[in-house]
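Batch manifest, entry 17 of 40.
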Amino acid sequence: MTTGSLRQRNNGNKQKVYQNVSPTTNGATTNLQSKLANISAELQHATQASTHRLWTRAVIAASVMIVVYFYSQQHNSNETKFALIKEKLPLRIQKFECSKSYKAEIRRFPNCVPKKCGRFVSDQLVEEDEVDKLLNLARTILSMAGSSGGASILNLHTGALSYKEQFVNAYRVPKVVAELKEHHLTVYNTVKNKIKKAIAEQFGIPAESLYLTDPTFFSRLTNATARTMNDEYWHEHVDKDTYESFHYTSLLYLNTYQKDYKGGRFIFIDGSNANLTKSAIEPKKTRVSAFTSGAENLHHVEQVTEGERYAITISFTCDPDRAISDLHIKTPNL
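Output type: structure tokens
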């Protein structure tokens, strides 16, 4: 057997082997292709079903969002804007009948009965430099203490100062007293008298019949989680029910909604059930709002969601027995 014949035989065997393998490979390929085609069809069907389900879910979700949107629009349509930050209001006032309970109680003080109850807003009672002094004072002192929750209070008349989850006496803290300067107290009393005069004029009563009452205080509201009931400032309430001595309530806003914080609007709630409407005040630096303290002015403050909201609540009574004196510097009581 020559090398050539061996080479030939080997070539022939190789060819036979390839030929033996080739028909088998073609058949397997055909079967494999058939299976792959089936799998592909199944995957396509599954993908289409999955895509259809996703699309269906997306349509349902969009529908829900549309319903929620229109519901919220309908709900918000019952809200009026009593004072917007973009407005510069010399005076905006709304008058209405007093609640029966308020009318019955205030009759004990004939000179202090309003011609009608109501609410007003003014952006021209207090000067910006006056607000700057008060805001700086509040920020400085509350930065030394402050609540662990969302509402911190500083009452310069009683000395009550929020500290973590309790109150301390600010006049027992020398560094707090050191911040109180005579010019702060002068501005504080001047602002109080301006607001007192405006309340008397707008509600048709003599200013002499109004007395500053407790609590009158600075507040700082944030989005911190409430730790105590004092931190839950957003609940609806009537001032006269919360503070028996109140007859007229006022607030001076020390900084501005949307610029310095978000949330924190002041909301009056009028009517009930299907006739319920809300009237919103957007706080603004130097803005004063004032109102009779009875059930005719149910209200709440929206939760602050970002930043720090500063204001002063200045409250007045018609009862001389519930009056407090003007602010003056106290010596530290160690």
